[in-house]
């Protein structure tokens, strides 16, 4: 591998560096592109937001316009109705007034003649009847007027529709005319195109070759001449028609403008669509005319001379039109989202092109940036520059073409001054939305001069002193100049005035000069040397060589005196001073003398007790200062002593002080000023009696502390005993002038005794103010574990619960070992059971359980406090009246606008209905309650519940009033109860928070649905408390989330297992509030009493006949019982039971089947009515049992069950019966058959013979086995008897029975 040369390495490194630089440039470009993309996206989002906002505003304006139009229409209709009914009302009013005057005259006449009273009554009745007739006439006239108004409005609508239809037809006819014009133009153009080849063949050279050809050419020439003539005529006709169309359109525009101004607002709204349609038609017509003109202008140049002439004419017209548009400012208006672009379409940076302080012969260049500030794509081109600037200004601008909104381009401006003059003009650009211009200025160098001050005040000085002051002359321009400072003529009061320039060059006593450069400043020194006492004033003028600069003037003033001693501060202000406080100040005295002077200081006699100057005599050295100490101690006698020096209203003190100079007759005076005020603090009241206070509570009272001074004062209560507290800020603070502050004095007794103490308030100047206090400490026999209960924020109809204890700690009367209950220093309370009673106000939403009780010594009693915020009944009734009044106002007044007394009648009816006892269950009451709950804003209330304490036991007393109770032993329980609006509301069962299942049978289940709604504006996650797992209540379906305004259903079931009342609470938890549902239900044991206990024997019945029997069942429980009657023979398991071994094959002890013989026809032997129903609590039900056998048997039986609620068998009755074919039968004996029949149906012999139709009169033999047993004794004769029973009824005759024995 050959070695690389050094030059190649250098070249490679250079390439790598260039590549790296290119990568960096590419990355930078990507960052710039990304930045621009973000900016464009932000601008796009901003524009979209602005578009949405504008669309919303436009829709709101349209809605408002429609509402205003509708309101105006209703107002017009109402005005027409009033105008229609006004004449009748005026007539009625005049007739009533005339009638009233007549009746009054009759009344006065009848008062003098009582005989005519009856006539007056008749006249009154006649008046009432006529008044009613007039009212009816007014109502009829009103109805007729409304009908006429409706007909008029209908005719107006129809007329408007006809006008719209005529306008559309007229526009269609015009369009047809325009289309026919277009067709004729097209046909003529086609004809010209067909004749063009023949016109090309025509030449004048061949026309003279022969006469025939000449004649032919003449014919062609005549044909061409006719065609050209026709073409020109057609062009003139087309132009005249176009002018006519334009004139008609302009006439219509003027007509529509006049019509629009003459019509009303409502008609203008209705005809808006029509005007828009007509404008659209006119726009289309103009477009067609322009298109036709352009088309006709597009004919090639190769056509004949008339065509070129027409084309040239059309082009000139188009050019004139475009130039006219440009000259008159007709441009394309940009409209985006219904909003037009207003203002300048391009924004220039900088706003003004300013070439400042230029020099002739030099070249100046500047760049400006033009930014598209319109809403859409726009372009920009240079239109021109002011005529007088074309020789000096050149513009370098390359039009970028179309520019999006927010894009910018650069414009270069070059200025080459040739003359030293100020130039002003503008550069004009043309955009799509209009022209705009950028101002241009070219200013020469100027000299701008100013002074920093126009008045120099030297103050007061002694004759012979030299004082110097400076004034600054500033040039803010780019051109320098020379200046001269001179004093105005006539000012000779100054002995010597010298102006000194900044270089330090001394000029004459009155005039100095110098030169000031561009952007520079010069300081001028003015010296004042007073020679004579008095006031001195001088005027100075500064002149400049530059003619455009105007002269500047300033003045100087001073005062000269000849007193050698003076006070620099002749007014000594001590500000605000308090009585009995010492204030000091130092007064400085200056001397101008060249020798030492003896001074004496004097204070006026009136203030000699309050003010003093120390030392009273002193020596001041030459041209030095001397300090005098001023002491001021105002006493309360100052207003009387000071006299005229003190103003009692403003409390301002002005004292003149005198300095006497030895060998001088003129003293030096100065004044001391002060405002004197008091330092008192007033405590109101001056004495406090806290009264009786238990050791478990604090007593608070208020005192007012007032600052009588006009100065702020700090205060503080010091040395407070441990049982006293002062708030706010622990009794410390600052009182502003004349301010009053209310302080809370809190007293808490630590033991039972009498208190008498004083509180001390000290001010910042160590003044003390006393406050006397008295109190009696009480140690009650009982105490509360908590004196303050703060409930959590509880929703309306919700429940918050707190518990506390009432403690009896009094077990001994030994006051040496511990504190004993007593009132002050009174007797000690006895040891024993102590009773208490909480007295809750009537309107307080708090429940205390138990409210009355007894606590034994050393024991405590648990107390439960429940807070259930609700809306007061009075508030709900007032809201119901308000809602009802609003409804009456909305509906009744529309119908009865001429009978306002009906409105008062309805309102009075609502008020009376509100006072009825059953109003609380009405729909209006419930609606008002729901409205108040949904609009509840929350409230916070404090309640103080007294607990009265008495010695003794309440068990042996009828009430606590029989016990001796001292009011000083009363305990107080403070409750803080915040109520808030509920987040979740029960909407079912009229919004009740109590779920009452009522009476439910034991073992049965009842389900209830409770609908809850989220009335808060946010989504809620619900939680539920746990019900008793062993209890009868069960939450079947809880709810997880509730959206705002959503309704969902809770399902709760109740299945009691005991005969008692059940109560539980279900808490529904949300983030802010809780909802408590009270669930109540009663378990009831269903019980009945039947008139038949176990067996109901129907007896003997002739076969195929029926007999009935009745029994009664009574409901002895407290709930309604649903029952059903079931027979074992009709049981659904009957077929399954028959598959077992027959009963007659088992022994009688093993038989369990209660169903005996059944009918052959398949019908049930026994039937019961009714078979199901409901027995009301405490009522009874009769049941009818029917026995209908179809063959003879002694073993008919069945079992009847009374089933309650489809589950529980409450009672069982065995039904029995027998059937015989004959009226006479034998009962008793030893049975010769089995009690249960076999599966085979076998008839007895006698039955078979009866069925075969044997002779009824023939004797029938019934075989019966009778076993006769007896004991024979010596002295007895025994008879054996057998009983023969007959089954015949009394209506049938009995038959003879013959017995045969074997």
From TrEMBL:
Transmembrane segment boundaries: none
Q: Which Pfam families match?
A: Ig-CFAP74_2, Ig-CFAP74_3rd, Ig-CFAP74_4th, Ig_CFAP74_1st
Ranges for domain CFAP74 third Ig-like? 565-677
Top-rank lineage group of the source organism? Eukaryota
Among InterPro entries, the record links this protein to: Ig-CFAP74_2nd, Ig-CFAP74_3rd, Ig-CFAP74_4th, Ig-like_fold
Domain CFAP74 second Ig-like, residue spans = 449-502, 508-563
CFAP74 fourth Ig-like domain boundaries: 683-777
What is the protein's given name?
Cilia and flagella associated protein 74
- Which organism is this entry from? Apteryx owenii (Little spotted kiwi)
């Amino acid at each position: 591998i050959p070695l690389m040369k050094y030059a190649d390495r250098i070249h490679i490194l250079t390439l790598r560096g260039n590549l790296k630089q290119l990568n960096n440039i590419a990355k930078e470009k990507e960052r710039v592109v990304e930045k621009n993309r973000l900016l464009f996206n932000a601008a796009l989002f901003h524009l979209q937001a602005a578009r949405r906002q504008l669309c919303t505003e436009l829709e709101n304006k349209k809605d408002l316009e429609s509402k205003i139009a509708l309101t105006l229409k209703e107002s017009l209709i109402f005005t027409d109705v009033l105008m229609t009914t006004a004449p009748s009302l005026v007539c009625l009013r005049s007739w009533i007034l005339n009638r009233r005057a007549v009746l009054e005259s009759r009344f006065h006449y009848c008062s003098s003649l009582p005989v005519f009273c009856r006539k007056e009554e008749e006249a009154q009745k006649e008046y009432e009847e006529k008044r009613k007739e007039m009212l009816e006439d007014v109502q009829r006239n009103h109805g007729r007027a409304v009908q006429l108004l409706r007909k008029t409005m209908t005719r107006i609508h129809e007329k408007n529709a006809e006008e719209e239809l005529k306008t559309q037809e007229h526009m269609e006819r015009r369009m047809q005319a325009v289309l026919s014009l277009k067709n004729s133009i097209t046909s003529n153009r086609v004809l010209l195109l067909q004749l063009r080849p023949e016109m090309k063949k025509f030449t004048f050279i061949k026309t003279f070759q022969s006469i025939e050809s000449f004649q032919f050419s003449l014919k062609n020439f005549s044909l061409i001449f006719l065609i050209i003539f026709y073409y020109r005529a057609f062009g003139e006709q087309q132009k005249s028609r176009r002018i006519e169309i334009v004139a008609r359109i302009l006439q219509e525009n003027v007509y529509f403008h006049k019509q629009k101004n003459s019509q009303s607002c409502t008609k203008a709204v209705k005809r808006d669509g029509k005007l828009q349609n007509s404008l659209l038609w006119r726009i289309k017509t103009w477009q067609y005319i322009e298109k036709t003109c352009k088309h006709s202008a597009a004919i090639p140049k190769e056509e004949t001379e008339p065509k070129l002439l027409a084309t040239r004419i059309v082009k000139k017209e188009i050019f004139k039109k475009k130039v006219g548009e440009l000259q008159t400012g007709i441009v394309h208006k940009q409209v985006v989202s219904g909003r037009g672009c207003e203002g300048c379409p391009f924004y220039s940076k900088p706003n003004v092109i300013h070439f400042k302080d230029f020099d002739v012969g030099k070249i100046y260049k500047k760049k400006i940036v033009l930014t598209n500030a319109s809403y859409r794509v726009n372009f920009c081109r240079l239109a021109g520059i002011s005529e007088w600037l074309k020789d000096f200004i050149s513009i370098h601008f390359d039009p970028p073409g179309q520019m999006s909104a927010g894009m910018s381009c650069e414009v270069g401006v070059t200025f080459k001054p040739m003359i030293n003059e100020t130039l002003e003009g503008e550069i004009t650009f043309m955009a799509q939305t209009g022209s705009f211009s950028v101002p241009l200025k070219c200013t020469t160098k100027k000299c701008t001069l100013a002074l920093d001050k126009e008045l120099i005040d030297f103050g007061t000085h002694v004759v012979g002193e030299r004082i110097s002051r400076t004034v600054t002359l500033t040039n803010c321009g780019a051109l320098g100049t020379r200046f001269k400072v001179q004093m105005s003529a006539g000012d000779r009061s100054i002995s010597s005035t010298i102006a000194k320039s900044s270089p330090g060059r001394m000029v004459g006593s009155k005039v100095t000069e110098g030169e000031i450069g561009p952007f520079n400043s010069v300081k001028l020194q003015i010296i004042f040397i007073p020679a004579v006492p008095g006031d001195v004033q001088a005027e100075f003028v500064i002149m400049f060589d530059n003619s455009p600069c105007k002269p500047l003037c300033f003045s100087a003033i001073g005062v000269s005196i000849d007193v050698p001693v003076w006070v620099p501060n002749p007014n000594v202000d001590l500000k605000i001073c308090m009585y009995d406080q010492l204030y000091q100040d130092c007064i400085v005295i200056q001397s101008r003398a060249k020798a030492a002077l003896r001074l004496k200081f004097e204070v006026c006699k009136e203030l000699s007790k309050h003010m003093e100057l120390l030392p009273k005599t002193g020596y001041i050295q030459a041209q030095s200062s001397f300090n005098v100490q001023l002491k001021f101690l105002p006493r309360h006698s100052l207003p009387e002593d000071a006299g005229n020096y003190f103003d009692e209203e403003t409390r301002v003190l002005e004292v003149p002080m005198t300095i006497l100079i030895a060998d001088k007759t003129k003293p030096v005076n100065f004044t001391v000023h002060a405002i004197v005020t008091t330092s008192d603090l007033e405590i109101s009241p001056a004495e406090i009696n806290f009264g009786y206070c238990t050791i478990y509570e604090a007593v608070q009272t208020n005192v007012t502390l007032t600052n009588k001074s006009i100065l702020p004062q700090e205060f503080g209560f010091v040395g407070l005993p441990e049982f006293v507290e002062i708030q706010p800020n622990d009794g410390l603070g600052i009182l502003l002038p004349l301010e009053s502050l209310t302080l809370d004095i809190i007293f808490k007794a630590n033991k039972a005794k009498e208190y008498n103490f004083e509180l001390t308030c000290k001010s910042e100047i160590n003044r003390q103010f006393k406050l006397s206090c008295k109190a009696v400490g009480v140690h009650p026999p009982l105490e509360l574990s908590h004196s303050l209960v703060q409930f959590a924020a509880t929703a309306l109809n919700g429940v918050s619960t707190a518990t506390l204890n009432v403690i009896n700690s009094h077990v001994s009367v030994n006051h040496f070992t511990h504190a004993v209950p007593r009132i002050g220093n009174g007797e000690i309370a006895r040891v024993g059971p102590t009773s208490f009673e909480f007295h809750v106000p009537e309107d307080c939403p708090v429940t205390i359980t138990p409210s009355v009780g007894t606590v034994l010594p050393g024991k405590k009693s648990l107390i439960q406090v429940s807070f259930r915020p609700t809306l007061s009944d009075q508030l709900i009734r007032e809201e119901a009246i308000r809602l009802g009044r609003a409804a009456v106002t909305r509906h009744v007044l529309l119908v009865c606008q001429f009978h306002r007394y009906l409105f008062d009648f309805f309102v009075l009816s609502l008020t009376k209905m509100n006072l009825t006892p059953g109003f609380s269950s009405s729909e209006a009451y419930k609606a008002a309650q729901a409205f108040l709950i949904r609009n509840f804003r929350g409230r916070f209330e404090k309640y103080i519940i007294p607990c009265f304490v008495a010695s003794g036991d309440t068990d042996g007393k009828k009430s606590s009033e029989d016990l001796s109770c001292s009011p000083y032993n009363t305990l107080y329980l403070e409750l803080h109860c915040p109520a808030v609006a509920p987040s979740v509301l029960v909407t079912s069962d009229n919004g009740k928070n109590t779920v009452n299942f009522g009476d439910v049978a034991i073992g049965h289940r009842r389900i209830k649905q409770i609908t809850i709604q989220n009335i808060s504006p946010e989504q809620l996650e619900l939680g539920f408390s746990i019900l008793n797992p062993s209890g009868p209540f069960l939450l079947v379906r809880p709810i997880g989330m509730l959206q705002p305004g959503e309704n969902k259903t809770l399902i709760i079931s109740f299945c009691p297992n005991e005969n008692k009342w059940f109560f539980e609470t279900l808490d529904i938890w949300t983030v802010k509030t809780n909802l408590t549902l009270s669930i109540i239900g009663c378990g009831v044991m269903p019980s009945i009493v039947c008139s038949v206990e176990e067996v109901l024997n129907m007896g003997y019945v002739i076969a195929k006949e029926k007999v009935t029997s009745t029994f009664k069942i009574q409901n002895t429980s407290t709930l309604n019982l649903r029952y059903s009657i079931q027979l074992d023979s009709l049981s659904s398991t009957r077929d399954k039971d028959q598959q077992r071994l027959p009963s007659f094959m088992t022994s009688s002890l093993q038989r369990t089947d209660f169903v005996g013989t059944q009918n052959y026809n398949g019908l049930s032997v026994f039937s019961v009515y009714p078979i199901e129903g409901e027995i009301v609590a405490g009522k009874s039900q009769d049941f009818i049992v029917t026995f209908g056998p179809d063959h003879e048997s002694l073993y008919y039986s069945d079992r009847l069950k009374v089933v309650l609620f489809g589950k529980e068998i409450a009672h069982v009755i065995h039904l029995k019966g027998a059937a015989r074919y004959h009226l006479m039968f034998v009962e008793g004996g030893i049975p010769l058959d089995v009690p249960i029949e076999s599966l085979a149906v076998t008839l007895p012999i006698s039955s078979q013979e009866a069925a075969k139709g044997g002779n009824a009169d023939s004797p029938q033999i019934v075989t019966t086995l009778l076993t006769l047993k007896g004991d024979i004794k010596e002295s007895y004769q025994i008879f054996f008897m057998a009983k023969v029973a007959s089954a015949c009824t009394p209506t049938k005759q009995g038959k003879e029975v013959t017995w045969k024995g074997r």
